């Protein structure tokens, strides 16, 4: 199943890249929906699971603190890479997205170590995020001076990264306590990606009610999926 999910994440990335190359009018709605899905997984799935599992290793305040560490750490990494990419030939920004996709795959693999239901819900969020990643990879590569061929090359690398990340988690296992702490970090990652990258991007490109409703819809879908998976 994990291999199939890895392939699906790659296809989602390729789909997003194709939209960016051909159907640019749909990109803001994709960003909005993806933002809601990613934030929803962090709030409704990962944080509750992190609190439950992490209680075996740390106090709830520490677990929630790690969510903040994940948020700030991802923010610093993203902004540092973005600053370093200024004036470059369009490689570093899509490379940073590829690294993020690798971390997405690691997150899915770790979630499946908790339970298949948790892994499936996390995979749904990653799939939504990867569609937006495909859009961003193409957009950033083209805006950095690269042509369509370079953009497609980075798109392929980004599509393969989640499968590689999932594969890495097959090489080791983590106890429930440390796994809960790791999930808290990934919840912080997802909160940053959804709230600080995807949601603002959807509104900046097309500031309409439709993009905001898409974000609400994305959160609602994840809430329902979590309810069904746990019920």
Indicate the topology.
Blueprint: H1 2-22, H2 27-54, H3 60-85, H4 92-114, H5 116-143, H6 148-169, H7 176-205, H8 209-230
Helix pairs in contact: 1-5, 1-6, 2-3, 2-5, 2-7, 2-8, 3-7, 4-5, 4-6, 4-7, 5-6, 5-8
Any overview of this molecule?
The longest helix is centred in the last third of the chain and has 30 residues, at 176-205. This protein has one domain (2-230). The model has no long low-confidence stretch (mean pLDDT 78). By secondary structure, it is mainly alpha-helical. It is built from 8 helices and no strands.
Low-confidence stretches: none
Termini Cα gap: 22 Å
SS-based structural class?
mainly alpha
**Could you spell the SSE succession in H and E letters?**
HHHHHHHH
Strand content: under 5%
Task: State Rg.
Answer: 17 Å
Biggest sheet record:
none
